[in-house]
Structures are given as C-alpha cells and as structure tokens.
Amino acid sequence: MDIADKAEGLIRLALEEDLGPRGDVTTGAACPPGTPGTAVILSKEPCRIAGQPVAARVFSMAGEGVEYRELVADGSDAAPGVEVARLSGPLAGILTAERTALNFLCHLSGIATLTARLVAMAEPYGVAVMDTRKTTPGMRVLEKYAVSMGGGTNHRQGLFDGVIIKDNHIAAAGGIDIAVRRVRTALGEEYPVEVEAADLGQVRQALDSGADIIMLDNMPPGMVTEAVGLIGSRAKVEVSGGISPENFGDYVRLGMDMISLGFITHSSPAADLSLEVRVGSERG
Q1: Total count of domains within the chain
Q2: Which of the residues 99, 123, 208, 276 is marked catalytic?
Q3: How much is the pLDDT for 33?
C-alpha cells in the first residue's frame, strides 16, 4: 500500500470539506464544460519535495480524466522555477482540485525541507533526527512520511508500536524502577524500553532500572553533556524537548544518539509551490 492509498480517506474528507454540498460553484459557472487545459506546478523556492502521490490522487478523485505527471520525485530537491509536475485534461477538474492538492503538497514538502536541513546539520555528528507524536490529528501517516522524505527517522507511529515511560507514567506507577519492572513483566523483550528523564537523578534511576534508551527531556546543553557522560555506553541517548531549528546546532554536537523534535511536524513552514493553468490541450 503506497502513501496515497493510506491517505485516501483523508483526501476524501479534504475534498468534501472544500466542495461541500454544491461543488465548485465558481468553476462551474465560469468554465464551460469540456474545456481542455494544462497546468504546471512550480517551485518558487528551494525545497525538498514530498507528497506527489497524494497530490496526484487528489486530482484523480476530484477531476475525472485529469492526468498528473510527476517531474520531481518525492525525496528530491527542487530549485526555484523548477516544474514539479504537469497536468492535462478537463480544465474544470484541474481548477477544482488545485487548492486541496497544493495544501497537501506544500505542507508535506515544507516538513521534508526542514527535516533535510536538520539532517544535514546532524550528519557529521552521527545523530539521527526523529519526529514525535506531535502531529496534526489525522495527518500523522502523511507527516511522518514527509519526515522520511527529508531523510529523518520516524519514531514510533503511535502508542501501539513502542514503549516510552514518560513523567506521568512514572508518577502513576510510583517511580522509574517500578514502571520499568512492570513493562518488562508485561511485554518481555518485545520492545526496547525508553525512559524519560528530566534531571540527572532520574538519569541515574533509569540506568539502574536497565532502560535501553534514556530520553533527556527539556535539559539545557550543559546538563545534556553531564548526562551523556554519566550514561556512557550503558544506554542509547535521545534528547528532546525545547529544541528548535534555532538552537539545534547547540545540541547536536553533545554526543547523543538521537534528537527528536515535535517542531518538524507541527510547525514547519509550508513550501512555496504554485499551480499555473493554461487553456487548451498540451502540445509537444
């Protein structure tokens, strides 16, 4: 199942949201039925493309007979002025699907673009750049796909495929050691056990409990350095919380294995892409 298949229900909802009960009244009134047309999607800034299959599916669902030709593949970079895709077919279908397709393509390409920039910064230090569960409701599969197109690493998809013992789990269980012991008893070795630590005391407790991964949560760089030295090779180290593109460079060199950022999925600026229509059939 490709990414467009996984997103088809979401695409359908997005089109229903835009078309409502009456459809595209402007295009229906202004564009004579059967008018052929072509269009190009252009990059207006340097960006990493993500979401081409999704955009193509939008046009196929909204405009029967619209052909979408991908010119820049997902995971590839586009310079300003580059044609990302070409479309041909009924002009009404192109116009009706335009905004919904661009909403997906611009959002996902924005995530991929920022992720690619951070991955390039992290590569010299051997640090993996990971996403989190801080995603737009209903959009997680697409936003995490975009992270992967930027060269990032997907953290767990949800609560079902990984163990992270966070502060509220620790409070509910009555301590790190108890929480880890209960997880090991219930799940055995099915998942690596990750424990969130907010200070050096909790780092020591997580180490003593046998955690496989320790997440250093909302620690300033100086404390991260201390924690990394304390952990050594006894566990993998993830750094998370309060990290943004502006301070990323202050953290990435401190010796951790992974950095996770909610920012890349919930606050990446959309890529600047536009669609330009031409009336008449495509030639050449």
Answers
A1: 2
A2: 99
A3: 84
Whether residue 217 lies in the annotated active site: yes
Query: How many other CB atoms are there within 10 angstroms of residue 174's CB atom?
Result: 10
Q: What distances in angstroms separate CA 259 from CA 155, 172, 230, 236, one per listed residue?
A: 10, 26, 18, 11
**Could you tell me how far CA 131 lies from the centroid of its own chain?**
7
Are the C-beta atoms of 271 and 111 separated by less than 8 Å?
no
Please state, in angstroms and rounded to a whole number, the distance separating the CA atoms of residues 68 and 58. 10
Among residues 86, 166, 182, 278, the one annotated as catalytic is: 166
Q: Are residues 136 and 247 in the same domain?
A: yes
Quote the domain boundaries for residue 39.
Answer: 3-118+269-279
Q: Domain check: are 124 and 113 in the same one?
A: no
pLDDT in tens, 189-222: 999 999 999 999 999 999 999 999 999 999 999 9
**CB 53 within 8 Å of CB 4:** yes
Together in a domain, 50 and 69: yes
99 is an active site residue: yes
Does 284 reside within a domain? Answer: no
Cα distances from 185 to residues 56, 178, 182, 208, 284, in angstroms, run: 47, 11, 5, 17, 66
Q: Establish whether 236 is a catalytic residue.
A: no
Helix ranges (DSSP H) in the chain: 3-6, 8-19, 25-30, 52-62, 91-122, 140-149, 167-173, 176-187, 200-209, 221-231, 248-251, 263-266
